[in-house]
Design goal:
It is built from ten helices and 15 strands. It has an eight-stranded mixed sheet with strand order 8-9-7-10-6-11-12-15, sandwiched between helices. The chain is 33% helix and 22% strand. The protein is α/β, with parallel strands linked by helices. α8 (242-257) links the parallel β11 (232-238) and β12. The structure holds adenosine-5'-triphosphate and magnesium ion. The site of magnesium ion (MG) has 5 residues, from α4.
């Protein structure tokens, strides 16, 4: 059996018979996965025309390629139609959703807090927003937002219904693990669950932004998950400390390799406002955010202060707080893009 990368490369050369362009040219290769357990290829392909006589033959040829030539035991195939407005450039309607991945090199820099607050701030401005908590090491979005962890409901057409809080819809790996058991996903299971998150969630019909809380790190798992996200824009979160920023730069390079556009850097825990004299104190050093931004050649979107501890576990800030102001500034730059 070939690797996922080889499979993708092979499929990109296939011709969409309804427009005679390769899937690479049309951008019709929406999802490539391998279900290792049963040796099956899992594909979502968008064609220029879906209800076309040639589609049937396309399916037959593709099945032959996957099973006979490439040696897979089976094929799970979904055919969709390219959006008329975007044909030849972007994919279907879903692709007009802006997926914004929040990445960091190091753990604990505030990635999940930033992801949740960006989402909530967007929603406060009237946007339709969802969060995918894809941090398999420690899915913490339910905690940050105060959402009870339980198995989501499904719809008749087998879509998963997200939970909502602060007008933000949320789907988290945490919802699918019993009793908060540590997540020990194996490759194919993980792949399958995340594919569900990207293709089978019944978001609000008018959803505009999906914020993705990615696992920390610069290794294979972080990159594999990033690779699953369709047309992802990335934000890199760092703290001001040089060690955090060095690793954040690496995370940025990884995203670039996957051709994900990095839209900017956020420096978190930049300073503490001393309540006694109102002065900014740079407890964790300075310059990390600037450094990451300049090395990646992207803007520093904002520098978040160290916030006051909140009651309970929630860390959603109001727009009146200094930290809320900074989130507003960041989000306004996102929207303008
Ligand atoms: N600006 C801030 N001010 C004060 N506390 C913060 C700030 N940002 C994050 N925190 C706190 O720091 C801790 C880590 O934040 P968070 O869980 O968001 O980080 P993370 O990068 O997602 O971590 P992990 O790698 O575990 O996923 C949390 O307790 C959070 O409340
Ligand atoms: Mg986190």
């Amino acid at each position: 059996m070939v690797s996922k990368e080889e499979l993708r490369a092979r499929l990109e050369t296939i011709i969409d018979p309804t427009c005679n362009k390769t899937l690479k040219e049309t951008g019709g290769l929406k999802h490539v996965g391998i279900d290792d357990e049963v040796g099956r290829a899992v594909l979502v392909i968008a064609l220029e025309k879906k209800d076309n006589d040639e589609v049937k033959q396309f399916k037959i040829n593709l099945t032959k390629l996957i099973k006979l030539d490439l040696g897979f035991s089976g094929l799970k195939l979904e055919i969709e139609e390219l959006n008329p407005k975007e044909k030849g450039t972007v994919l279907d309607k879903e692709k007009q959703i802006r997926y914004i991945g929040i990445a960091s090199g190091k753990g604990g820099v505030g990635k999940s807090t930033v992801a949740a607050n960006i989402a909530v701030t967007l929603a406060k401005l009237g946007h339709k927003v969802g969060i995918i908590d894809a941090d398999i090491y420690g899915p913490s979005i339910p905690n940050v937002m105060g959402i009870e962890v339980k198995l989501p409901k499904g719809t008749k057409d087998e879509k998963v219904l997200p939970y909502a809080k602060y007008n933000v819809e949320v789907i988290s790996t945490a919802f699918f693990v019993e009793d908060n058991a540590p997540l020990m996903w194996r490759g194919p299971m993980l792949n399958r669950m995340l594919s569900h998150f990207f293709y089978d969630v019944k978001w609000n019909d008018k959803i505009e932004f999906i914020i993705v809380d990615l696992p920390p790190g610069t290794g294979d798992v972080a990159l594999d998950i990033q690779a699953l996200i369709p047309q992802c824009e990335m934000i890199v979160v760092t703290t001001p400390h040089p060690t955090a920023s060095n690793i954040a730069v690496k995370a940025g390079y990884g995203a670039k390799k996957l051709n994900h556009e990095i839209i900017g850097v956020i420096e978190n825990m930049s300073y503490f406002i001393n309540p006694v004299n109102g002065q900014k104190e740079n407890i964790f050093g300075t310059g990390g955010g600037e450094e990451v931004a300049s090395k990646l050649g992207v803007p520093l979107l904002g520098q978040l202060p160290i916030g006051q501890p909140k009651s309970g576990h929630q860390s959603i800030y109001s727009l009146e707080e200094p930290i809320g102001h900074e989130y507003l500034k960041i989000v306004n730059q996102l929207i303008k893009k």
